[in-house]
Design goal:
heterodimer, A: alpha+beta, Aldehyde Oxidoreductase, domain 4, 5-stranded mixed beta sheet, 21 helices, 26 strands, B: alpha+beta, Ubiquitin-like (UB roll), DNA polymerase, domain 1, 2 domains, 5 helices, 5 strands, about 15% strand
């Protein structure tokens, strides 16, 4: 029986409540200790599936979300430590194992990280876990000291009663025998000392500053082969044939095998595999490949946008309002395909394990889907797959796989070379940039109308693009009545009070695989809405901040709060040097509210962003410094894309870009100064991994329009640098 | 072929073709995995090591060119400047995903060893070859400035 089976059979019934949490489950150590060696000493105290207190006083929080920079390790540990009254210096985090019933997202029903949901879905759950552990430690101390539990204080990892005191570790064994409180009381926010503390250090900084942090690429197993796969140069092309003679002649190449996604070259080391792939000859069947250029796709999408599509939101009579408008504004927008380009190229390690199973090391974001896909590709049950969820070098959506492309590829490569030796699959940067699963190319048609008094009376928006939900397990959830939430989010619910609105979409199909990309639909809808409103307000002779507030204050007061704050931080009305301008944008996404004001000048035809003032309302601020870091990161990642990035298909559908030289990333000297203010709030916390991104593009675009007089409706701004 | 290499103060012998990039020798042969692969064409800096104290992209440095040279990886960093940089990285909680940070730290240390009081333009120039997709640049800049203050005593 594998560890997974034991785990499943010892699981107890859930408690009620959001997501529920399981008390007193004994997780098999081999499963729980991700990356840990088999045979680790059993852990004596497990009040539930989310926290473990060791005899050595170490509090280990099992985090159900993958850590690739957005901070769930520290964030979820903060929630536990708060209610546990733990000593932060003794707190550690590790990834929870794969188990959707324990660790599944309440919305998706599978174990996954996404939608900026980690803190939002963990706030009650993880605090309850910490409080339960605290209750068990107190009960054990009360029993040992013959004291009423209510008289025992817990402070910073210590249990205290009168002149007696003991560390958590001294009662770890005894506490394991206590019943877990079913509904432990939680602290009032006024009593928080870790939640909201801006000086709480992150748990993963030290290991990530010394090279000690282990990523999938850092996993080595005895006898391991490294596999690199030659993929097609056009999307939808299939292998027609290949000649591996030259590749096999490369010293260190041990095998060459066709798999579903291409032809895999196996080397004794990375260099051998790469050298072998260079000389591998593959012919491709392009009969079902995408042969259109991205320019042609954009033309096709805009052509579709002439007609209204499936309606996502409608109110009033937009046709009549446009016909009656004193002034109208029409605008077409096109947003390019974008690769995510996480720093760690996609990779996976898979090795044979005892009992006919496999052990996998993977930066797994769609945990349940990856787990199932690997099992299927290996022809074994999920219970025969031990999945170690690794720290990952970024994702930005790329690893949130509905179809587990690279996990499947790794498993197929492993099986193709015999299934009896460890294989590391490694993508190069070229594989990554050219590998698809892009932010979909989208076209937008906007029509706005002002009445004679300058009021915005009509707003029509047609969004055209591929859906990344098509043909995936998420299709029925994300596409309803012909409307893809991932395509129209941010467009269908604008924050502005406009009496006549129609927002619709056309879901297109094509061979280019597309995927959610940090902040998903908001990457383009936020840009469209916030630049279009800016132009309409200007036509109406209104100030960009005051004009927004007038339309937003009633309809979206929290977003308006961030706008007031950011405008105040930037001293919006103050004079600037003649060559600089401010642009503003406000976007609500994933339940959080963000306004950014950017100060911009133009140099050699390109925008230079000097400073960004950012105000965010994400409810209760669990980790203020992580919130600030995510705003900074969202701004930087968004700037990279909006300034430089465009993944193009050339004539015949050939992919044009390949690496960071032609798919440029923002550099340190291009990063603006960033000031972040967090709006004080008692609302339930919401996420920050994505919401920092959508406003930066339109904020910069609105400033650029002031400087140049020209709207930018077809980013990137600096096209020459991506060609 | 056997190549002799001095890494982190120790002479190591590895069996590799002379044109093998140092990065793959460090990782695959010596299991020094702190240096990361990010692009393979000296564009991202995740693989940054020191060769005779200077920042170098190990992904394009043939191992055969390093006879008699001193290679230092993130695992072998030591000294006051390295300590100051690590302390500053901790103070600002600079890393997010962390994958590029070995390279960022190596670049910071190489810069401050040569230029203990860098001007902003010096920092810009030194980091021009280091990409961070998480865009931790605001904190990197602050951390470098802090480390500079510390080593300046």
């Amino acid at each position: 029986m594998t560890a997974v089976q034991q785990f499943n059979t010892t699981r107890r019934a859930f408690l009620g409540g959001a997501g529920g949490f399981v008390v007193a489950v004994t997780l098999p150590v081999r499963l729980r200790a991700q990356g840990g060696a088999p045979g680790d000493a059993p852990r004596p105290f497990d009040p539930n599936a989310f926290v473990h207190v060791g005899a050595d006083d170490i509090v280990t929080v099992l985090v159900k979300h993958i850590e690739f920079g957005q901070g769930p390790w520290t964030g979820l540990a903060t929630l536990v430590a708060e209610e546990l009254d733990a000593d932060w210096s003794k707190v550690r985090a590790e990834h929870a194992p794969s188990d959707p019933k324990l660790y599944g997202d309440p919305g998706f029903g599978v174990q996954i990280t996404g939608g900026s949901a980690s803190i939002r879905t963990s706030y009650d759950l993880m605090r309850k876990a910490g409080a339960a552990a605290r209750g068990m430690l107190v009960a054990a101390a009360a029993r040992a000291w013959n004291a009423p539990a209510s008289d025992i204080r817990v402070e910073n990892g210590m249990l205290i009663y009168g002149d007696k005191s003991a560390s958590f570790g001294s009662f770890a064994d005894a506490a394991a025998k206590e019943a877990a409180p079913q509904d432990p009381p939680l602290k009032a926010p006024a009593d928080f000392r870790y939640i909201g503390n801006p000086d709480l250090p992150k748990l993963d900084t030290a290991a990530k500053s010394t090279g000690a942090a282990m990523f999938t690429l850092d996993v080595y197993r005895d006898g391991m082969l490294t596999a690199v796969v030659r993929h097609a140069d056009k999307f939808g092309a299939k292998v027609a044939g290949f000649d591996a003679d030259a590749a096999r002649a490369v010293p260190g190449v041990v095998d060459v095998r066709q798999i579903g996604s291409g032809v895999a070259v196996f080397g004794r080391n990375t260099y051998a595999a790469l050298q072998g792939r260079k000389v591998l000859k593959v012919t491709w069947d392009e009969s079902r490949a995408e042969t259109r250029s991205s320019e042609q796709i954009a033309t096709d999408w805009l052509a579709a946008s002439r007609e209204r599509g499936a309606v996502a939101h409608a109110q009033g009579d937009v046709d009549a309002a446009l016909a009656a408008a004193a002034t109208t504004l029409d605008a077409d927008y096109v947003f390019p395909f974008l690769a995510h380009a996480p720093m760690e190229p996609l990779d996976a390690v898979i090795a044979p394990a005892e009992g006919g199973g496999v052990e996998v090391w993977l930066g797994s974001q769609s945990v349940t889907i990856d787990h199932q896909t690997i099992a299927d590709a290996c022809g074994i049950g999920m219970d025969k797959v031990k999945l170690n969820i690794m720290l990952a070098g970024g994702s930005f959506g790329r690893r949130a796989q509905p179809v587990s492309d690279f996990a499947r590829e790794a498993a197929e490569a492993f099986m193709a070379v015999g299934g009896d030796k460890p294989v590391k699959l490694m993508w190069t940067r070229e594989d990554d940039i050219r590998g698809g699963f892009y932010r979909p190319l989208s076209g937008h048609r906007l029509r706005g109308g002002l009445d004679a008094d300058g009021r915005i009376v009509a707003w029509e928006h047609v969004v055209v693009g591929q859906s990344f939900a098509t043909d995936t397990p998420f299709e029925s959830m994300l596409i309803q009545d012909g409307v893809d939430g991932g395509l129209v989010e941010g467009a269908s619910e604008i924050p502005y009070a406009v009496p006549n609105i129609n927002v619709s979409n056309h879901i297109m199909r094509g061979p280019v695989p597309v995927l959610w990309w940090r902040s998903v639909g908001h990457t383009h809808t936020g840009y469209v809405v916030e630049t279009f409103i800016d132009e309409l307000l200007e036509k109406a002779g209104k100030d960009a901040v005051e004009g927004r507030l007038a339309l937003m204050s009633q309809k979206n007061p929290r977003l308006a709060g961030t706008l007031r704050k950011a405008a105040e931080m930037a001293d919006w009305r103050a004079a600037r040097p003649a060559d600089r301008a401010l642009g503003v944008a406000s976007v609500q996404s994933f339940g959080s509210y963000v306004t950014q004001v950017a100060e911009v000048s133009m140099a050699d035809g390109a925008p230079k962003v000097h400073k960004v003032w950012c105000a965010v309302d994400c409810g209760i601020a669990v980790n203020p410094d992580i919130i600030a870091a995510q705003m900074e990161g969202g701004i930087g990642y968004g700037l990279s894309a909006i300034l430089f990035n465009e993944l193009q298909l050339g004539q015949g559908g050939a992919i044009m870009q390949s690496n960071f030289h032609d798919y440029r990333s923002l550099k340190l000297h291009e990063m603006p100064e960033v000031d972040v203010a967090i709006i004080k709030s008692d609302a339930a916390p919401t996420g920050v991994g994505e919401p920092g991104l959508p406003p930066i593009g339109p904020a910069v675009a609105n400033a650029v329009r002031k400087l140049t007089g020209e709207p930018v409706r077809r980013p990137p701004f600096v096209r020459s640098m991506t060609a | 072929m056997a190549i002799s290499l001095k890494v982190n103060g120790e002479t190591r012998s590895v069996d590799a073709a002379a044109d093998t990039p140092l990065l793959w020798v460090l990782r695959d042969e010596l299991r020094l995995t702190g240096s990361k692969f990010g692009c393979g064409i000296a564009q991202c800096g995740a693989c940054t090591v020191h060769v005779d104290g200077q920042a170098r992209r190990s992904c394009v440095t043939p191992v055969g060119s390093l006879e008699g040279r001193e290679v230092t990886t993130i695992e072998g960093l030591k000294g006051d400047v390295a300590d100051a940089v690590h302390a500053a990285w901790a103070k600002h909680d600079a890393p997010q995903c962390g994958y590029c940070q070995s390279g960022q730290v190596m670049t910071a240390v190489a810069l401050l060893e040569r230029t203990p009081k860098p001007a902003p333009a010096d920092i810009d120039a030194a980091f021009a070859g280091n990409i961070c997709r998480c865009a931790t640049y605001v904190r990197i800049r602050k951390a470098v400035a802090d480390a500079s203050d510390t080593i300046g005593g």
